[in-house]
Design goal:
With 556 residues, this protein is of the alpha+beta class. The protein is built from 22 helices and 20 strands.
Amino acid sequence: MITSIKLDSQLRFTAETFRPFSEVELRNLSKTWGGSGTWRKTGCIKYILDSLAQPERIRERLSILPEMDMAALWILREQGGVMRAGDLEWILRCYGYNPSGGTTLGYNRCVYVPQLIQNGLLLWDQEDYFFSLNSRSISSHTLVWIDGRITDELMGPPTIVPLNAHPLQAPADAAAYRRPSHVLMDCLAITRALQQMQGLRLTQQGTVRVADVRQFAKLLGWEKGATYAGFTFPNIVEVVLAIWTRCHWLVKGDGEVKLTITPEYFNSKPFEEIVSLMMGSYLARPRVTYPHSDIIYTGEEATLPVGLVYCMRALPEMARTYATSHFAAAAYQRIGDYTMRLRPYYQQRPGLAEKDADAEAKKQWLTIADTLCTEMLTGWMYWLGLVALQQESSEGLIFRFTEFGQRIMGYGVRAKAAKKAAETAGPAWVVQPNFDVIVYLDNVTPEQLAFLETHGERRQMEMHTARYVLTRESIHHGMDTGTSLKDVIAALRAGASAALPQNVEREIRSWAELRERITVHPACRIIAFETSRERDRALQAGLQGRLLGDLYVLAP
């Protein structure tokens, strides 16, 4: 968290940010923007700020930058304009550049980032008192940031040096993948479940209570993990709650974790932007403990999973099919030496020849990288719909990026905005007389999916269709969110592009009338239980009463 840089909401250099600089430093900075460097302190600041206020001058400045500098600015733009110096150099290395001129990771120093600062493109958190404009290196932990007006003028995409990875000839139609609509439906269901639970309670140690985790998993059918097209995502509950927290959709309060969004949030901005946020939050997770970590550097700024994901961006053709073993070998050529412990492996194994030690260390590195790639691809990246997978072969897991994944992971191909209601080739769904709603995922809009997630119960999800069921409970739940009977009928008709079955419309109207009735129960008690399991045990033991929601019983 930045504490000493005075930032506005748009990340802009201001007169206040330059006030701590000496007159000599400001003269040098003004020269980088084309100034004479002869002004006094206030004149230098004014010239720099005037330059930043002129887009054409910024574009002229950017036009002469080398490819690595441009790639660095693109990385900063994607990271919101602020990141640690070590992280910036690490990602550049994954993109095929050599920013430090050698391995400096073990010393926690960066020698490339100071050049960007001295060229007037970045500033640093001035709590790092050991760095100045004359310094040759900067701590890898120091935060650096960029004026948003500079990144706004970037023309791209940036140059990424292709990885030396050769695609396979595997048939693309044999791969399994999740569509963006599948991901959206699950995001809506997760948020609805958290909304229904009214947050999560914390233990005295600050962790989510086990009972609440179990109830959350039960609501989503994840009691034993989750399996998609034969690929297992065993820790999905843990990952989802962590991602929702890092996206600030869940915020810890006094003894509980509260939901800060509603399902409607996912209609408020392009879904690609939301998925990009979730993927970035996933990469920001805490360090991973590797097997054989004696040969892998586990520093904060160079975690191997992050490096592997950014190396995936450097695949020569993201739409082609690759094997994890081939990809790991290509990634080793780029970041293997950099992520090895600086202490030679043969020194840790007395009596082992240096050549044999290097070969064994490389073999273990490739095994670890292959395992991590498989875990990420079959877990979060597959769940987000970024990759299409085939079952593992002798060469490892077979994968390729979906069209949606290419838009998320690639530069310059992501749409800046998504149409709220895209033109479709037909109706979004068909409402059947048995209250089933068959949804055509190619045609349905995010708003329509949010409506069904709130007013129906999802029973099945296939590649091109999904099946919901309208029930009295689901309609009542939807109306509790503020939807009127008129709105429910109108939305169902609009999605079907046809009249509703008469029995369905008649029943929905009767359910709405039942909801409006007031029932008085004199001399009764409402008993609350911590979990639905405890409630069921009490009822089986002889407790008399009527169910109210998941955790309450109306008892005489």
